[in-house]
Design brief:
The structure holds 2 protein chains of 2 kinds. By secondary structure, chain A is α/β, with parallel strands linked by helices. In chain A, 46% of the residues lie in helices and 15% in strands. By secondary structure, chain B is an all-alpha fold. The chains are: A alpha/beta, B mainly alpha.
């Protein structure tokens, strides 16, 4: 049925084009915030799209600064009708985007016109793209916290199995013993940037089954137990710092260097660093490495996760005409179908067909950690959540200092709850 | 001779007109809009309901506003006078050099000033990096041999950023001072030398009083610039405890662009605007009065 609808849509577009007497090439203005290793892969995807669609659709892409600058620019430009035709967006920030009126609805008809539907994605991703049952985005990937490891070092320590996967990391005792074992003079058991510790704290919070936000129950960390779980997660990280297993203060580039220079066997980071290591390995500047899901240290598997999606900005006074919209939907569909290349950037394709394909299963280490898609903990659904939003500030202002021993974990947790609830 | 007054007015209007139009459209009108916006609960984009003085009461009692105010004041204290004194010292030293040597040294001091803030940030971020930074060689002995993160340790944040700011911006002040020093006629020094005035006396009685107008100007420009401090503080605090080191412009940015509260952002902006006007006028008048004594 989808096929026939698609054909119908194609036929009617062609007919319209003929009727208007012009086969104008559509230019789709594209904004993204992908500046790292994944940005390089996105650029080659865009080039490939442009080559395949010469004379029909051409993407004109701009990469902007990640975070507040990007989201602010998108919001202000959409408000005056000068926004792009398509943009990348984090699903965790969807409620804030809708609250500020930045995004246009993507209807079921839009999706069907290119043969997509909610069923093309995991339920979690399809739901995260909606606010109050209205769809404002099409998921593209899922990304999250994973554990990178140095195979050479683990092998020497007898901690690798025959498949090259680390053994004996599950459970707090085992994991901490491993950290202790590798921490010697000038060496650290674990590398991770100080500013990114919140991702691990949130993962550990999720592993205890904590609830971060429940509107009905009164907002952030609704019960004392939830607050305690946050303190426990923070205390864990603070203990690792206090024991010297991970540097007390370290910036992102230095944390990366600590791992790549062999001064630390483990690196807790987002899967977007996969291309960095792949590229280094190709140039022969990297040891044997691998990546697995975050080990289960508490009761259940969980890891911080978010999702990149495509959105159509609600350009005030300059709503997209049907042909432009058809072109944008074509871009979205093509990108989804070709998201295997995007998986090269370490991300898990949101599109079921690609994620379940044999080709993806062969990709290493992507397929090794692909399981986190099912056990991921997303940011809560509130207008305060998402990158470059108040929730991120609260993590940095309370929890991160608590992990470095500058605040008491329990105080930090309570202050974070109060601060966030006061902003609701 | 009789002059045609109307002709003169017309000429004046033609010459000044374009400036007045641009000034009105790009400065006066937005300022009026900002003040009006501060009385509404508008989001970042679009109009809002009139709420009277509510925003002012809210902002003035906001804990974060107080933090931003004191951090900004602290930063001003750390930069304005030190920057001026260091610039004057460098200018006097450079002024003693001659020919190509002078040009070379002057260029070396001025070069950082033309760098964009992002380059300054990236360069210094590596220099002060807690794992690999060069500066750690100097810092370690003061911390029992341990490295210390200069931008993540809250008490060290402002002094560090102030130091980088002075390094970055003093080139321009040096230029202003050199221009001022060259305006002092050599004959005065010659006469002073004949009266057997020493170096220090020459500085205290000739250079310092005669350079005072330039000093007053530099201090005022510095005060205004440092009250508006944002870029460096924002960049160095990314990934850290931003609330602990927040400055006023950053607070405005946070309210308006991050929390989508245009009205409250405008209120904070009006307060900063008023502060800058009052302080800079006050300071300039005080400095002038001292100069005329």
């Amino acid at each position: 049925m989808n096929k026939s609808l698609k054909r119908l849509a194609l036929a009617s577009t062609a007919f319209l084009a003929l009727a208007s007497g012009a086969v104008a090439q559509q230019t789709v203005v594209w904004w993204d915030f992908l500046g790292g290793g994944d940005g390089v892969r996105m650029k080659s995807l865009i080039d490939q799209f442009n080559q395949e669609h010469q004379g029909e659709i051409q993407i004109e892409a701009t990469t902007l600064e990640w975070g507040s600058p990007y989201y602010t620019k998108l919001q202000t430009s959409a408000a005056i009708g000068e926004g792009p035709d398509i943009a990348t967006y984090h699903l965790s920030r969807m409620p804030l985007a809708v609250d500020s009126g930045t995004l246009a609805e993507i209807s079921d008809e839009d999706m069907e016109s290119v043969g997509l539907s909610d069923a093309s994605y995991t339920e979690a991703a399809a739901n995260a793209a909606k606010v109050d049952d209205t769809r404002y985005g099409v998921p593209f990937d899922q990304h999250g916290l994973i554990l990178f490891y140095n195979k050479d070092m683990l092998e020497e320590a007898g901690m690798l199995d025959e498949n090259g996967l680390p053994t004996g990391l599950d459970g707090m005792e085992n994991f901490e013993a491993a950290l202790e074992q590798f921490t010697t003079d000038g060496m650290y058991g674990l590398s991770m940037p100080t500013g990114d510790r919140y991702r691990m704290v949130y993962s550990l919070f999720g592993q205890q089954g904590g609830t971060m936000y429940d509107e009905a129950a009164g907002g952030f960390f609704p019960t004392d137990e939830d607050l305690e779980k946050l303190s426990t997660a923070t205390e864990t990280m603070a203990r690792w710092v206090e024991n010297g297993w991970t540097p007390q203060q370290i910036e992102s580039p230095a944390a990366l260097a600590l791992f790549t220079s062999g001064q630390s066997p483990f690196f807790l980071m987002g899967n977007w660093e996969v291309p960095t290591f792949t590229d280094l390995a190709e140039r022969g500047e990297m040891f044997e490495w691998g990546a697995v899901e975050v080990p289960v240290l508490f009761d259940q598997p969980a890891a911080w996760s978010d999702s990149h999606a495509f959105v159509i900005p609600a350009n005030a006074g300059a709503e997209a005409d049907p042909e432009k919209r058809a072109a944008v939907m074509e871009v979205i569909k093509w990108m989804n179908e070709n998201s295997l290349d995007w998986a090269g950037a370490g991300h898990l394709p949101a599109y079921n067909e690609v994620r379940q394909s044999a080709e993806f299963q062969e990709m290493k280490p992507q397929s090794v950690y692909a399981g986190f898609a099912d056990t991921a903990v997303f940011d809560p659904r509130t207008t305060l959540a998402g990158p470059a939003a108040p929730l991120g500030d609260a993590w940095n202002n309370y929890i991160v200092p608590a992990t470095s021993g500058e605040m008491e974990p329990a105080d930090a947790a309570a202050q974070m709850r109060d601060d966030l609830n006061s902003q609701l | 001779m009789l002059r045609d007054k109307r002709q003169e007015y017309l000429t004046a209007l033609v010459l000044v007109g374009p400036f007045i139009i641009i000034y009105g459209a790009l400065f006066v009108w937005p300022t009026i809009q900002m003040v009006m916006l501060s009385f509404t609960d508008a989001p970042l984009i679009g109009p809002g309901e009139w709420v009277g003085l509510e925003n002012y009461f809210k902002i003035l009692s906001h804990r974060l506003f107080h933090a931003a105010f004191w951090n900004t004041a602290y930063f001003v204290v750390l930069t304005v006078v030190p920057n001026t004194l260091v610039s004057l010292a460098i200018a006097m030293a450079v002024n003693r050099l001659k020919g190509w040597q002078q040009s070379l040294v002057l260029a070396a001091f001025f070069l950082p000033y033309i760098l964009p803030v992002s380059v300054v940030f990236l360069t210094w971020n590596w220099i002060i990096d807690v794992q690999y930074g060069l500066i750690q060689w100097l810092v370690r002995p003061f911390n029992g041999g341990e490295p210390i993160s200069l931008t993540r340790t809250i008490p060290l944040f402002m002094p560090t950023v102030a130091f980088v700011t002075i390094w970055w911006t003093l080139g321009f002040n040096v230029l202003l001072f050199i221009a001022g020093l060259r305006n002092i006629s050599p004959e005065i020094y010659e006469a002073a030398a004949l009266d057997s005035a020493g170096r220090w006396r020459q500085f205290a009685r000739i250079t310092w009083p005669l350079i005072w107008p330039v000093t007053a100007l530099v201090l005022t420009i510095q005060l205004i610039a440092q009250l508006k401090i944002f870029d460096q503080v924002y960049l160095f605090s990314i990934g850290g405890r931003q609330d602990a080191t927040i400055v006023l412009v950053q607070y405005i940015y946070k309210l308006a662009f991050q929390q989508n509260r245009g009205g409250e952002g405008a209120t904070a902006a009006v307060l900063l605007f008023a502060m800058i006007i009052v302080l800079s006028v006050l300071q300039y008048q005080l400095l002038r009065a001292r100069g005329e004594k």
